[in-house]
Design goal:
Length: about 300
């Protein structure tokens, strides 16, 4: 609290811009020209910032201006904050020129690169950004994306959504595991091992097995933790094919899992004010996953 019993105000962007301008231009006069204010206003703004922070930020002589030790630290943080503020303004003013697609683990799996290429070709006016966030909604609930790829169990009643396809399940093994030499693994066999299980964002639940035939479990926190547990040989994992495509790691081998239901893949978005490019993203994803089905059908002929 300040001397008057109220809460002291923190630094404002104008204070930070002033400090950066002084250092970058080398003096108060040129900083005033860059900011479009008087030299006296620059001096007052800097003094106000130093008063708020309670430290001296610049060594000032008749010829030079140099940051103090504290000034160097504040200057670095000020640049980051100003850049973030500029990005915030750009996000707000560019409207829907960017499409953020969130995911918890593996985006569109083996279709990710093709999705990016076709999107860039067909929608050059809307930049695509993939956002990985370790939450059940891949960052959608947190406001980090416009729509998200969701594979795990989720209350879809809260969101607008579209089923874009299915992915077969695979078993992830340490590469020196005896099962790694096999072509496939049965679901019942997994029950004899310890299963790495991510309750937060994973797609696998013990409901895949009957109550009297479930595997032992080691809980993990994210994809990297999950992979580390499997590479150690302590556990095996069950995961959609997308993980096998996106996370090819030394020490990890993936094998198809027989007799297990495939994993549905949804695109999910907020009901209110959806991004204008949502329908195009859904159509592209459905088309790519549909190519999988047509390829399997061709192989059976």
């Amino acid at each position: 609290m300040d001397a008057h019993g109220g809460f002291a105000a923190g630094p404002e962007l104008k204070h930070l811009r002033c400090l950066v301008a002084i250092v970058d231009t080398g003096g108060f006069t040129d900083a005033a020209l860059e900011l479009g204010v008087s030299q006296a206003a620059v001096s007052r703004t800097l003094l106000a910032l130093e008063s708020i922070l309670g430290v001296r930020l610049l060594h000032r002589t008749s010829r030079t201006v140099e940051p103090t030790t504290a000034g160097v630290r504040v200057l670095a943080r000020a640049r980051l904050l100003l850049a973030a503020a500029a990005e915030l303004v750009a996000e707000a003013t560019t409207g829907h020129s960017r499409l953020h697609v969130g995911h918890a683990w593996s985006a569109f799996g083996r279709h990710t690169t093709e999705f990016q290429r076709r999107w860039g070709r067909d929608h050059p006016g809307t930049e695509l950004r993939l956002v990985r966030h370790n939450s059940p909604t891949g960052g959608l609930a947190e406001g980090l994306c416009d729509l998200a790829v969701v594979r795990g169990a989720l209350d879809l009643e809260r969101w607008s959504h579209a089923l874009v396809g299915f992915e077969d399940r695979h078993v992830a093994l340490a590469s020196d595991d005896p099962w790694a030499r096999r072509r496939s693994v049965r679901l019942a066999e997994v029950a004899t091992r310890t299963l790495a299980l991510d309750r937060r964002t994973g797609t696998t639940t013990l409901g895949l097995w009957p109550e009297d035939g479930r595997p032992a479990v080691e809980h993990t926190h994210d994809i990297d933790d999950w992979l580390a547990s499997i590479a150690s040989g302590r556990c095996v994992g069950v995961t959609p094919r997308a993980t096998a495509a996106q996370y090819r790691r030394d020490g990890i081998t993936y094998r198809p899992l027989r007799d297990a239901a495939p994993v549905p893949v949804h695109l999910v978005w907020r009901r209110q004010d959806p991004h204008p490019a949502t329908r195009a993203a859904v159509a592209l994803a459905v088309g790519l996953y549909g190519e999988d089905g047509r390829t399997r059908a061709d192989r059976r002929r």
